[in-house]
TrEMBL record:
This is tRNA-specific 2-thiouridylase MnmA. Its main location: cytoplasm. CDD domains: MnmA_TRMU-like. NCBIfam families: PRK00143.1, trmU. It comes from Candidatus Nealsonbacteria bacterium CG02_land_8_20_14_3_00_34_20.
Length: 354
């Protein structure tokens, strides 16, 4: 836990769940002046329940509680972007953008206007400081969590030094089991709380959500030789590597590619066709604020639950694009997803897969 100065204020993003509740409790115990904040992001029953639970936890902890109505901004910056990218045939990760734009964007801005020194969340990640005394410069590093199975650093690759200076991740130094024990110790009624849904603004399934907002555009399903096998209900319903829900007899088939111009869903029976040794990334962000010397060997994740894989990254001359070449082929490299870079425990940065 960061050493504190007397009276330092921290606003904790509270969801009513275990991780954010224990975060608030740890910070109060450490001597911070803590305020709990719930971000109202959408009009959904499960989010209303979370708000009531967060308010209850704040009362138990004896800390002030605020509700911020961010529905308008969240709709514009997260939901509309999510729909736009699906319409473009991509498979976006809205949580990554939400961390940059909402939690450590709008919430952080609000916290600073209310004279807070920090914003804290229940992310399983760690932050450290590198102080260069002769230059009077502090560089902040993002590190993987102690609990490697729960590590959420993958979702934080868009953050910058200005944001990191004002962020705390108190539970990053604990395992999930240790956090459960702390919840019991603090007598917080959160152990039976439902775990957060994968995407907070989606009530049922992604496809149900997309059906409500995007117009269906049926087209042909073809194999790698352009043989017509059937019909799809709209390319936005499918993602690279998908096996279930294609609806073809004689499978299994896997989604190999999407041709937006011809509105074709390209499938294969050979799972090996999904493996590739190279990807191109755009919108790359380096946590340090500086591009490292390239080419560089690093460990890479192409999706949250994917195993770390060795790769070499280089920059395409006179462009903003990067090429990653893997030592071993990777399954279902998916446009729109985040590719995240690591060096040992340190999160170097990331980008969007083209």
């Amino acid at each position: 836990m960061k050493k504190i100065k007397k009276g330092q204020k921290v606003m904790v993003a509270m969801s009513g769940g275990m991780d954010s509740s224990v975060t608030a409790a740890l910070l109060k115990k450490a001597g911070f002046n803590v305020t709990g904040v719930f971000m109202r992001l959408a009009d959904l029953p499960h989010l209303s329940k979370e708000e009531k639970r967060a308010k209850k936890i704040a009362k138990i902890l004896g800390i002030p509680f605020l509700s911020l109505d961010l529905r308008k901004e969240f709709k514009k910056r997260i939901i509309e972007r999510f729909l736009k990218e699906h319409k473009a045939g991509l498979t976006p990760n809205p949580c990554v953008v939400c961390n940059k734009e909402i939690k450590f964007g709008l919430l952080l801005e609000k916290a600073l206007t209310l004279s807070a020194d920090f914003v804290a969340t229940g992310h399983y990640a760690r932050k450290s400081e590198l102080i260069t005394y002769n230059l009077q410069l502090t560089t902040y590093k993002l590190l993987r969590a102690k609990d490697k199975d729960k590590d959420q650093s993958y979702f934080l690759w868009m953050l910058n030094q200005k944001q990191l200076r004002k962020i705390l991740f108190p539970i990053g130094d604990y395992t999930r089991k240790e956090v459960e024990n702390l919840a019991r110790k603090f007598k917080l009624p959160v152990l039976k709380a439902k775990k957060s849904v994968e995407i907070c603004f989606i009530k049922t399934t992604i496809n149900d959500f997309l059906s409500n907002y995007l117009k269906s555009k049926p087209g042909q399903i073809v194999d790698v030789r352009s043989k017509v096998l059937g019909e799809h209900g709209g390319l936005h319903f499918y993602t690279i590597g998908q096996r279930k829900g294609i609806g073809l007899p004689g499978g299994p088939y896997y989604v190999l590619n999407k041709d937006l111009k011809k509105n074709l869903l390209i499938v294969t029976k050979n799972e090996r066709n999904l493996y590739k040794k190279e990807l191109t990334a755009k919108n790359v962000n380096w946590i340090s604020g500086k591009k490292p010397e390239l080419p560089m060997r690093m460990k890479v994740k192409i999706r949250y639950r994917h195993q770390l894989a060795s790769a070499v990254i280089t920059k395409i001359l006179n462009s903003k694009f990067y090429i990653l070449k893997f030592v071993q082929s990777q399954r279902a490299i998916t446009p729109g997803q985040s590719v995240v870079f690591y060096q040992n425990q340190k999160l170097l940065g990331g980008g969007i897969i083209c």
